[in-house]
Amino acid sequence: MADRFLTVTVSQLNTYLRSKMEEDPLLSQIFVVGEISNFTNHYKSGHLYFSLKDDRAVVKAVMFAQHARRLRFVPENGMKVLVRGRVSIYEAGGQYQIYAEDMQPDGLGALNMAYEQLKKKLEAEGLFAQERKKTLPLYPQRIGVITSPTGAAVHDILSILARRFPVAEVVFCPVLVQGEGAAPQLVRALRQMNRYGGVEIIIIGRGGGSLEDLWAFNEESVARAVADSRVPVISAVGHETDYTICDFVADVRAPTPSAAAELAVPEQTEILFTLRYQQRRMAQNLRAMLESQRQRLDYLLLSSPLQRPELLTAEKKEELAALWEQLQRAEQALADEKKKELQQAAEHLQALSPLAVLGRGFSVVYGRDHQPLKSARDVERGERLEIILSDGTLLAKVEEKRDNNGNQQNDDL
Predict the structure, then answer these.
(1) What's the CATH class of domain 2-113?
(2) Is CATH 3.40.50.261 what the domain over 141-266 is classified as, yes or no?
(3) Which positions fall inside the Exonuclease VII large subunit C-terminal domain (predicted)?
(4) What is the pLDDT of residue 250?
(5) Residue 189, SS3?
(6) Nearest CA to 190 among 240, 250, 128, 269?
(7) Which phi and psi angles does 191 have, rounded to 5°?
(8) How far is CA 351 from the centre of its chain?
(9) What is the spatial distance between Cα 237 and Cα 207, in angstroms, rounded to a whole number?
(10) Considering just the CA atoms, what is the radius of gyration of the chain in Å?
(11) What does the pLDDT look like over 279-317, one tens digit per residue?
(12) Residue 229 above 90 pLDDT?
């Protein structure tokens, strides 16, 4: 019974089904609409793995790196997309899946989706914040211009700069402004302007075009190069209604390249008008100041001190006399005070003088060698003494010695 049926291995079965699917023209090029789920980005390999689902079914899908690199937006879970690819079987797992070659957001273009995603990302990082934007210098001496060497934009910028402020030097860096190599050239030009250009302002931009034409100015690398610039950047991309990521990151956004040139430099005729106005104001102020000083001088010349200087000298003489009198009084008061102090010191010295002591009934007795006697033991009977009184001197001879109790003292004791 088993001989009537074909017996195959699992691998052979999966290979057979794969070949059948790949031979089917309907499955070799198919468009599938669905919602992304289970999205995985293998950053090392660059492959994308995800599922597509609707309200009733799910199918697995894979997009290899060579196709994923061409995506303009970042796929996310919950995003509804239109996938173009082929259907086949993954033999090792025995599961059919879609091998995606292209993907577009359903209902919104890939460029629009990429634009909105990058705008949201950079805004969250603070790259659009007003407080980080630099102020443009009033009178720049060197201006950097980054744009295409062909087209109307470079002509408009250079002609307006030359007309409005011809003293400024222009450093022009020609670049591609659309296509594959445009973004790297824009980034390189911005960095070179910062390092070697010596410029005070950078104008970066191009003329109008479609979203695809302007896309180089929506690249993340360009946006970050503008944000990293030490020199203030004016973004002038497209027409007035065109907004790029570069416009949001730049320090100033100009609606057109011509407007960027007008924002970068002042109008020389306006400067000349201002200078002439200030010159007139200075001349008027100088004349007014001179007239005021002349009137003040006339007033001083008519004043009484200059008309009758003797009045001024008389007044000063009176002041000098008053000061002299005041000085004399101060000198007399000081002399009286010092005289009183001297008198008090003399009285104090007089009270301490030995003569004053003698005047109170005391005397000084000198013995041999004219030395003052301090004790009765220092003198002998028969010795001659000299007695000094307040009004004269006595010469005496010791006949007897007594102690304080009146007892007679002997010399041999």
Answers:
(1) mainly beta
(2) yes
(3) 127-335
(4) 96
(5) helix
(6) 250
(7) -70, -40
(8) 83
(9) 6
(10) 59
(11) 889 989 998 999 899 888 888 777 766 667 776 677 788
(12) yes
* Residue pointed to by tokens 């033991």: 377
The closest of 38, 113, 108 to 71, measured between CA atoms, is 113
Give the residue carrying structure tokens 């304080």.
Answer: 404
Residue 250 to residue 263: CA distance in whole angstroms: 13
Which residue from 393, 362, 357 is spatially nearest to 384, judged by alpha carbons? 393
**Confidence category of residue 109, pLDDT binned at 50, 70, 90:** low
- How far is residue 46 from each of residues 65, 299, 361, measured CA to CA in Å? 5, 93, 134
| Best CA proximity match to 355, nearest among 389, 395, 393, 394 | 389
3-state SS, residue 218: helix
DSSP string, 40-70: EE-TTT--EEEEEE-SS-EEEEEE-HHHHTT
Block residue for tokens 């007892």: 407
Integer Cα distance of 253 and 235 in angstroms: 5
Domain chopping of the chain, boundaries: 2-113, 141-266, 359-409
Query: Encoding tokens for residue 165?
Result: 């402020």
For residue 66, how many other CB atoms are within 10 A of its CB? 10
Which three-class secondary structure state does DSSP give residue 28?
Answer: helix
Identify the helix (H) or strand (E) that includes residue 385. Answer: strand 384-388
pLDDT tens for each residue of 393-410: 878 887 787 777 767 766
| Single-letter amino acid code for the residue at 9 | T
What pLDDT does residue 1 have?
Answer: 46
Average pLDDT over residues 276-280: 86
Question: CA angle, corner 203, sides to 202 and 207, nearest 5?
Answer: 160
